Amino acid sequence: MADYYDVLGVPKDAGSEDIKKAYRKLAMEHHPDRNAGSSEAEARFKELSKAYEVLKDPNRRAAYDRFGEEGLRGGGFGGGLDLHDAIEVFMRDGGGGGGFEDLFGRRRSGERRRSRTGEQLQVRLPISLKDIVSGATKTIRIGILEQCEQCGGSGSDGERGAETCATCEGRGEERIAQRSFFGQFVSVATCSTCGGEGTVVRSPCSKCHGEGRVRSETEVEVEVPPGVTSEHYITLRGRGNIGPRGGPRGDIMVLLEVEEDEWFRREGNHLLVDLVVTFTQAALGAEVTVPTVEGSLPFEVPAGIQNGQVVRIRGHGFPDLDGGRRGDLMVLVRIWTPTDLSEQQHTLLTQLREIEEPAPARVDESGGGSGGFWSKVRGAFSG
Questions:
Q1: pTM (2 decimals)?
Q2: In CATH, what is the architecture of 264-382?
Q3: Which residues are registered as beta bridge partners of 123?
Q4: Domain covering 1-106, topology
Q5: How far apart are CA 215 and CA 199, in angstroms?
Q6: 235 and 223 in contact (C-beta within 8 Å)?
Q7: Which residues of the chain carry a pLDDT beneath 50?
């Protein structure tokens, strides 16, 4: 697909108002009702609406600027818009209201407005560091509004079903005339009788009370891509509450929450872990194992390593969200000093003290011997 900025004909540093103006102009030009149902115009109209939906949202725009469409897939917005969604976008931000009706034809008396879309659901999904490394499929159980089986979603308890609203004559809107010193003003508001649907139920269903939907519980699978953070969310389009009286489903927004780990810390795509060694292992060097999110790795403790020194193991951190290379595992070495010596250990250490060289006045900071933990890590990153 073409670059979204090119689709709307705006520069990459365009402000939100410039993006909105560009979308309105092009969407009006390519609206299917203005082009006799042309398939080319419809495709262009949907493309414009998709580009606008991404660039108008700061989070989606930032993800797109950094990762392209791959970043949008991580936020649940990787697919295209159908015509229904594109028209909803246009009616919301592209010039809907009375002027739109005059431009593309006024609704006929008695014509029902489009059913209301179900409300968006928000759920929180805890994920582990292991989920971030490899990706995961999670199943969550949520409360949701489903179609009422008793009335089939109509909301009516009898065969009459929903009737045209007498107040707005099916338009879903009321025109209210008001006088002032400057003359008469006419405003358009959602019909107070039918709530904008254009129809009313005279005999509500006893189970759903006219809503056409009832509360239920269901299980939903969520695909968590590798490399996400707690700043990301996943949108499951059309998987949420069903709309009143047969309206389309809303979305489910899954808010990701990365659980804290007692062994590891995260810095961007890098994984940070402490490794405790004895002073003989530090002095002589040793072959040990270091824990990772996925298991463990063999690790060669360099002879003479200093307490607090950071060693980098490349490629064993977290993957980029766009599928790029993985970050690194940063090993912070901590030297353990025993506090309860046996008689033999005490004797040997006493002998060692008699022949060892005196400690230097200070330790070379490039080895990580001083400064806080993060300063050591930053030093390893720049090394």
A1: 0.58
A2: Sandwich (2.60)
A3: 254
A4: Helix Hairpins (1.10.287)
A5: 23
A6: no
A7: 75-76, 96-113, 367-371, 381, 383
